[in-house]
Amino acid sequence: MTDAGRKLVVDRQGVTIIGDGFQFSTSAVPRDALEPDLDGLVAQATGAGEVESVITGLQSMTRLTYGQYCALSRALEVIGERWSMLLVRNLLVGPRKLADLQQGLPRLPADTLLARLRELEHGGVVRRTPDEVDGEVYELTEFGLELDDITVRLGQWGARLLGEPRAEDIITPDALVMALRSNFRPEASFGREAGYQVQIAEFDLVVYAYVRDGVMSSGVGPLPGGADVVIETGMNIRPLLTGELDPDEAVRAGAIQVDGDPALLHTFVADFRMPAASPQPEN
Prior knowledge:
By secondary structure, the chain is an alpha+beta fold. It has three domains: 7-62, no CATH class; 71-145, Winged helix-like DNA-binding domain superfamily/Winged helix DNA-binding domain (Arc Repressor Mutant, subunit A), CATH 1.10.10.10; 185-271, 2-Layer Sandwich (Nonspecific Lipid-transfer Protein, Chain A). The chain has twelve helices and ten strands. The strands form three sheets. It has a five-stranded mixed beta sheet, covered by helices on one side. Helix 4 (84-93) crosses helix 9 (173-183) and helix 8 (148-159) packs across helix 9 (173-183). The two termini are 36 Å apart.
């Protein structure tokens, strides 16, 4: 459970966190709590009444506070760490197993993933719940679900920063679902109904969006009951939705494939219109 430059040591003497300029130790961990992962450690520490001191020590030593009596600074101390908001983004799509969260953020080291989840749990944003199929899943609490509108608005703001994809960029199902939610234009779909399914073969990705009279639902996988149109695209989904790529020309050129009524490609673009990238200010 360490970021670069920090070391977590669990042994028979207890827990020690070592980093640049600090060392935090606790010796109240029972012998049977000496598990190789933090989840086991904290579960055992709870029984000994030591979880609060362990987590408080982790937060204060491995993540600096802003030292300001300010609501925004407090919020950022909970969700402002690297990767935290992407975990929130994915959990807004639905509860996820630990393996699913790892798969959805492949560049996130496993120890950092556990650290971020533990911080979000301690902040009241995330909880673990038993699941009949998956055993245990992570989900947002009621407090965490209040980040829904904030995440959508932040996605709208960030859409203007996308520009061309970087060489290492990927698209994940949860990210695309939230992108559709962020860019949905309710006014464009008043008085009609359509079921869309978007597929990106490069990333083995399938998501859906169902629109009816200004209301939209979306999720990962095929649209239950079948879609009115299946749109096969790729990284060119951004220029398609910004209007930089003409839908008819894209279909004629084979850049986008449509299975279903071709006219629904135009309604898809209208329903999920994205802003064009804004010029970046020069430093």
